[in-house]
Amino acid sequence: MEKPEILEWLRTEDEGDLSRLWQMADNARREKVGDDVHLRGLIEISNYCARDCGYCGIRASNDSVSRYRMTTEEIMESVRLTVGYGYGTVVLQSGEDYGIKTDWLTEIIKKTKKETGLAITLSLGERDDSDLLAWRDAGADRYLLRFETSSRELYDRIHPPLPGRLSDRFAILRTLRQIGYEVGSGIMVGIPGQTYDCLANDIQLFREFDIDMIGIGPYIPHPDTPLGRTLRASTAISSDQVPNTELLTCKVLALTRLTCPLVNIPSTTALATINRADGREHGLSRGANIVMPNLTPRKYRELYEIYPSKASCDENADESNSRIRNQICAIGRTIGSGRGDSHNRKMAA
Ligand code: 5AD
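^ thats the input. predicted complex w/ 5'-deoxyadenosine below
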């Protein structure tokens, strides 16, 4: 699909066209990756962050956040829960926390590999090449790093770099691929200043970069952030501004399935947050094939508030697991077994 067609779909409001889009995406999903929904146990291991991203609730300068870093034993307990629920993958996610030392995490990765057959996904921000290499050598399989937007200008406006460094997520994505990780990326939809043109470029970049897993969620304003405090009125003037709605998020998700048919696409927590009733199901029936139930210990959940009212904050691991299983079965899909590796990588290998 070329850019003009992507743009047309992004802008359409026609009900008939939209149901056609959902149908095409759902068909492509079924045909290319099947009916299985793979579950990934998400453990938010630390909310410390060295960065000051304009939209994120756990940004360094938000001092209303109490910071935590899980202990090795706490992490291993959540890893065991992941195995107990029958998932094939554990995701270790955190802010860009340099208190997470190379060797400390290396040991956790090795321990997890030794004790379980789980695939390990890391999502720890823009770490140095040497860290990425050490963790890959220790057994980590995948790395998630969203590029958030392909517009360099918009990216720079909301991602202040660390002193003396350049923030180049595309360079990191290339490195990850070279080192042998399965590579995940993605974007937020509806960032103030983001245009339809930007979104069409983002979708094309997923394909150009040959990304294996693509996470797409709506931007949700957080009141303790510079971007969240900007009044919508001041940014919504332009008719080019994309809204941070469920509808637009689903369009991007469906178009991503059509342009990158083999990839893994999660139905994200942010999507489930802006439509609590059936956001998760909409994602799954419009192209997604992955869900990442939150298995973070209950006491830490509300401290990992990247955006407000995050779905899953009011549950424990057992509740998240059974609610998500029910949602998947209710729409006639099956729960995947095994690691759920990206079909995109398998084809490339
Ligand atoms: N709204 C929506 N998504 C957010 N993220 C961070 N802050 C927000 C927000 N306010 C997303 C980013 C990041 C991922 C882990 O969470 O896309 O990559």
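Residues 55-56, 146, 148, 188, 217, 219-220, 222, 270, 306-307 surround 5'-deoxyadenosine (CB under 6 Å).
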